[in-house]
From TrEMBL:
GO terms for molecular function: glutamine-fructose-6-phosphate transaminase (isomerizing) activity. The chain holds residues 249 to 614 of 614 of the full protein. Homodimer. This is Glutamine--fructose-6-phosphate aminotransferase [isomerizing]. Its EC number is 2.6.1.16. It comes from Marinoscillum luteum. It catalyses: D-fructose 6-phosphate + L-glutamine = D-glucosamine 6-phosphate + L-glutamate. The lineage of its organism: Bacteria, Pseudomonadati, Bacteroidota, Cytophagia, Cytophagales. The active site is at K361 (for fru-6p isomerization activity).
Amino acid sequence: EKGGYDHFMQKEVFEQPESIANCMRGRLVLEKGELVLGGINEYSQSLIHAKKITLLGCGTSWHAGLVAEYLFEDICRIPVEVEYASEFRYRNPIINEGDVFIAISQSGETADTLAAIELAKSKGAIVFGVVNVVGSSIARETHEGAYLHAGPEIGVASTKAFTAQVTVLSMIAIKMGLLRGTISQSQFQLLISELNQIPKKVATALKNNDQIEALAEIYKDAQNFLYLGRGNNFPVALEGALKLKEISYIHAEGYPAAEMKHGPIALIDEDMPVVFIATQDDSYEKIVSNIQEVKSRKGKVIAIVTEGDILASSMADYSIEIPKSHYVVTPLLSVIPLQLLSYHIALKRGCNVDQPRNLAKSVTVE
Ligand code: F6R
């Protein structure tokens, strides 16, 4: 059942080239310049003409929503809010007839997300679902949606569901951008071609497994970790920190790198490993100076860098390469080494990676 792997989490991390390909299969047809989401149909006009989109989720699914916020704003020029379903439902939120929501959930059974959907629907909102489990409560309660097609996720820590969520949300954003005229046909073609290359690039990123296992040996006894990123890699930093917390029980925090100087920098000393997502996009130079700030305070830097990188990697104590990609799809690659790092650290600490303490795969109570 684990297909030759030692753990479900390991299997699910390593099968991401296939799960992401499955998620795009029959939807993204590069040669024809086609991007079709069959499940979004009757209500597609409300999505295309939305004045605002609210994304709902919990945990890792909320992080996927944060990545999507950058995409919808940038590609579709639509204002976006990303809400923890649990906060939203108890806040007397402002919901008007026809407002557009997208609920994100692996299990499709998360109680808070389900309750937030019911609240939105009761006020006349249109709710789309981005769900993995077919026929689940959230799949049934939403008006329309797009399944992840990632296959069953059994490890409690969500991995392949996250990359599939980001893939589906990217496909929705790119398609909407074309239909709204906020991206050109050639930008559309470029973005779908970038998405299409992701499975192959994820496979390349996974080849650094042994290097990451060796790093895990070095840092397995750390008591704290900081994860920093900017732009759409900021939510990836949150996700990396969550993965480490939940399966290795090491305290970890994710922050936007620029926020470091507003507080967390006080934590940095020679015992503090800081994981930077330092890929070569618009914020690269800024990230490089953030690395400098950590190094000058004797922090230990692990940098996730674009292959061939020289500057950030020369400043870091250790660097892990990922293939070069358009910034829109980078989170699908930058999260891979973070999943592997948490997996190896947890194993070396003797933790049960598939069933971490106190956690359940689907949270059906609030
Ligand atoms: C983290 C994790 C949880 C879930 C959250 C939402 O690894 O698994 O944070 O992401 O409980 O679950 P779903 O996506 O099933 O609604």
